[in-house]
Amino acid sequence: MLTEENKKYTRHDLLDAIQKMYPDNYPAQAGCLRAALASVLIHVEVRHPEIFQEIMEFEMRVTTND
Questions:
Q1: Per-domain residue ranges for the chain?
Q2: Do residues 52 and 41 touch, judged by C-beta distance below 8 A?
Q3: Which residues lie closer than 8 Å to 18 by C-beta, 6 or more apart?
Q4: Which 3 state secondary structure label does DSSP give 65?
Q5: Which pLDDT value is given to residue 53?
Q6: What is the distance, to the nearest Å, from the Cα of residue 48 to the centroid of all Cα atoms in its chain?
Q7: Contacts of 2 (CB under 8 A, 6+ apart)
Q8: Would the CA dihedral through 66, 36, 46, 50 be positive or negative?
């Protein structure tokens, strides 16, 4: 059995927590998700720059119309 101390989180844990925090408030959910994304990207950029570059290259490819 996993305790809170050694729980392995998934992306759904964060999404569910934000939805519970702001039920029926899509703008607040979107703002919270944007802040969480920025936090994750900063962490990855600082600690794993090569992974950060892979993520950014992929995201920039799929979000631009080039």
A1: 10-63
A2: yes
A3: 29, 32, 33, 36
A4: coil
A5: 98
A6: 15
A7: 8
A8: negative
Tell me the C-alpha distance between 53 and 29, whole Å.
Answer: 27
Q: Which amino acid is it at 26?
A: Y
pTM for the predicted model, two decimal places: 0.78
19-29 burial string, b = 16+ CB within 10 Å, else e?
eeebeeeeeeb
Residue 12's pLDDT band (boundaries 50, 70, 90)?
very high
Contact 18, 29 (CB under 8 A): yes
Cβ contact 11:33 at 8 Å: no
Q: Does residue 41 register a pLDDT over 60?
A: yes
